[in-house]
Amino acid sequence: MTNKTINGLYAITDPALTPDERLLPAVEAALFGGARLLQYRDKTASADQRRRRASQLRALCHEYDALFIVNDDPALAAEVGADGVHIGQSDGGIATARALLGDNRIIGVTCHGDLRLARQAADAGADYLAMGRFFASRTKPQAPPADIASLKQACDEFPLPVVAIGGVNADNAPLLIQAGAASVAVIEALFGHSDPADIEAAARRISDLF
Ligand SMILES: Cc1ncc(COP(=O)(O)OP(=O)(O)O)c(N)n1
Ligand SMILES: Cc1nc(C(=O)O)sc1CCOP(=O)(O)O
Ligand SMILES: [Mg+2]
């Protein structure tokens, strides 16, 4: 059974920053630096490539006792035995994901900065709420902005872990953690580095904030 504890650094892969040949060493460096969750997020690879990479990443995460989450695709998450899935507002509902994954897997849901979406997700059985984007993001510049007041309110109102995302780095993460975020999700501040030693150092700086 999956231990659903959502806490600490949540690393997310990116096909441009973590291309195939760098994916496993980059992710291993983030895990070695303390990442507690890893999300495979890739909207460009073929179905076969996604299946193969997801299986490899699941095995690697479990070597480090970290949770492995698949973005967007509950069927792939179920197929490779991931610990869970992350879904956005246009990725199919929580009920569909739950039917595929069962009660012991994690379902995380994007709620932007909108407490109404957070309430809906909590009522529908989400395991964590993701809020953002809190800072400028080169990875997803068009993500709707969210403010720290809405993060604080969500952390106070819902008995669920809240993950903060969007332009997060070691310098601004303390603001989110002080507001109550259980976890911060990070792409560029980790995987924007090409040297695994730099990825590990960046992961450790953020992990040590928790
Ligand atoms: C932890 C986390 N939070 C938010 C997102 C964004 O999900 P979504 O809105 O579905 O956008 P895409 O990532 O699919 O572009 C996420 N993936 N992870
Ligand atoms: C995938 C994603 N979703 C966001 C949201 O606000 O929902 S922001 C974002 C990109 C996060 O990457 P970086 O750490 O490089 O800014
Ligand atoms: Mg999505």
TrEMBL record:
Co-factor binding details: Binds 1 Mg(2+) ion per subunit.
Binding sites annotated in the UniProt record for 2-[(2R,5Z)-2-carboxy-4-methylthiazol-5(2H)-ylidene]ethyl phosphate: 137-139, 167
Reaction equation(s) it catalyzes: 4-methyl-5-(2-phosphooxyethyl)-thiazole + 4-amino-2-methyl-5-(diphosphooxymethyl)pyrimidine + H(+) = thiamine phosphate + diphosphate; 2-[(2R,5Z)-2-carboxy-4-methylthiazol-5(2H)-ylidene]ethyl phosphate + 4-amino-2-methyl-5-(diphosphooxymethyl)pyrimidine + 2 H(+) = thiamine phosphate + CO2 + diphosphate; 2-(2-carboxy-4-methylthiazol-5-yl)ethyl phosphate + 4-amino-2-methyl-5-(diphosphooxymethyl)pyrimidine + 2 H(+) = thiamine phosphate + CO2 + diphosphate
Domain Thiamine phosphate synthase/TenI: 9-190
A Gene Ontology cellular-component term: cytoplasm
Coiled coil: none
GO biological process, alphabetically ordered: thiamine biosynthetic process; thiamine diphosphate biosynthetic process
Pfam families: TMP-TENI
InterPro entries assigned: Aldolase_TIM (IPR013785), ThiamineP_synth_sf (IPR036206), ThiamineP_synth_TenI (IPR022998), TMP_synthase (IPR034291)
CDD domains reported in the protein's UniProt record: TMP_TenI
GO molecular function: magnesium ion binding; thiamine-phosphate diphosphorylase activity
Keyword line: Magnesium, Metal-binding, Thiamine biosynthesis, Transferase
UniProt-annotated binding residues for 4-amino-2-methyl-5-(diphosphooxymethyl)pyrimidine: 39-43, 71, 110, 140
Similarity-based family: Belongs to the thiamine-phosphate synthase family.
UniProt name for this protein: Thiamine-phosphate synthase
Organism for this UniProt entry: Alcanivorax sediminis
